[in-house]
Amino acid sequence: MVNPVSGFYKKTKEQKIKWLSANYLADDSQSITILKKYWNSDEALQKLHDDFIENTISNYYLPLGVAPNFLINDNLYTIPMVIEESSVVAAASNAAKFWLNKGGFKAQVLSTIKNGQVHFNFFGNVTDLETYFAEIKPTLISSIDAIQKNMKKRGGGLLDIEFINITDTLEGYFQLHCTFETGDAMGANFINSCLEVIASTFKNEAQSFQPFKISEAYPEIVMSILSNYVPDCLVRAEVSCPVSKLNVEGMDGAIFANKIVRAVAIAKATPRRAVTHNKGIMNGIDAVVLATGNDFRAVEAGVHAYASKDGNYTSLTHAKVEKGIFKFWIELPLAIGTVGGLTNLHPLVKFAFSLLQKPNAKQLMEIIAVTGLAQNFAALKSLVTVGIQKGHMKMHLMNILNGLNASEIEKTEAVEYFKKHPVSHSAVVNFVTNKRT
Ligand code: MEV
């Protein structure tokens, strides 16, 4: 039985590892060796990574890949992607190439409004509360002058504070719903700082509001936090071309286009398919969000909530054929930034921004939406033609070979052999075993 540890965070990295080793890894010195193998020999670089979070003991690598040939709004991009799933970058590259000579992708930011709420209780007279809010609103706004100063210079800041009565759903529950523009920043810290000051002003000023004094019922702050549901921070990306240009895998273009439209309709019809359909989209989106140092949990949460905004979880992409033109598009919320957070700190994030030609937040929203659309197109293209496993297993081949500790010669021979034979785990094991006997 391991004893609890106190002040763990105060220990040095070596001491932390020693503690882990003594308490959990006594029989596994290999793990400790591996932990240290993943330390960067450049001490300053390692220190930078150590300081991102608490209790860092090592680095956890994920591959950083690039998907070239993305024509977006007539600019050619190579998109950085961080992901562990073997087929994702290949699929994105494939879709980029496919649309390259068909006009590429068009993308457009539709809105950029973020939001957050001060959640509070009030069990007194609601009319008093409404009067108080109307009176206090200018003071609430001016209470964040100092915090907003720089954001305002960059064209952002608080847009409005709305009073919302949610007592129909939860007794005594109200919100100050605050909307913001945050420019090129994702803005989480800015929004949360504003909300906390607004909340304390709202609470403090209430002490001298006469009707509250008389009734002895005051608003009680529960919490103040931004919302990751950002349905007014939207981006749209699309591709289109005549169906005659869509001949794929020997399939007639019109038939292929109709199959894609049907596949999207199926994702719209049932959450079981929609979740997987959208998961494929998020393969692309998360990979770019991670590569650019953004918060993929925030994006995931917001996107999936948006996918169910009408009460049913449904497809994020849409497709139609009209007058012989195939159109395929996505619309989704993306609260991301190109300044602040890890963006100025992580050397590989800096690389990602250089590679993307230093996009602003809106351009990055467009790039990310396009990657999601491309990923969905690539998945559906395989699914409605040859099936997903052909490409997946081809990409997974190297993982299987590495799992079998294959030599470089074995790998080269296996790659050659499996160009003409279906890849499965057992087929690869047999291949390697035969080579070794
Ligand atoms: C796998 O990571 C993603 C797919 O399942 C997406 C889809 O089914 O559309 C291939």
Which key features would you list for this structure?
HMG_CoA_Rdtase_bac-typ; Alpha-Beta Plaits; 3-hydroxy-3-methylglutaryl coenzyme A reductase; 3-hydroxy-3-methylglutaryl-coenzyme A Reductase, Chain A, domain 2; single chain; alpha+beta; NAD; 437 residues; binds (R)-mevalonate; 4-stranded antiparallel sheet; HMG_CoA_Rdtase
Overview of the structural elements:
- With 437 residues, this protein is an alpha+beta fold.
- It folds into four domains: 8-50, no CATH class; 65-107 and 238-337 and 353-386, 3-hydroxy-3-methylglutaryl-coenzyme A Reductase, Chain A, domain 2 (Alpha-Beta Complex); 114-226, Alpha-Beta Plaits (2-Layer Sandwich); 392-436.
- 48% of the residues lie in helices and 18% in strands.
- The chain is built from 16 helices and ten strands.
- Helix 9 (253-269) packs across helix 10 (271-291).
- The radius of gyration is 27 Å and the shape is globular.
- It starts with 12 loop residues before the first helix and ends with a helix.
- The site of (R)-mevalonate has 8 residues, from helix 10.
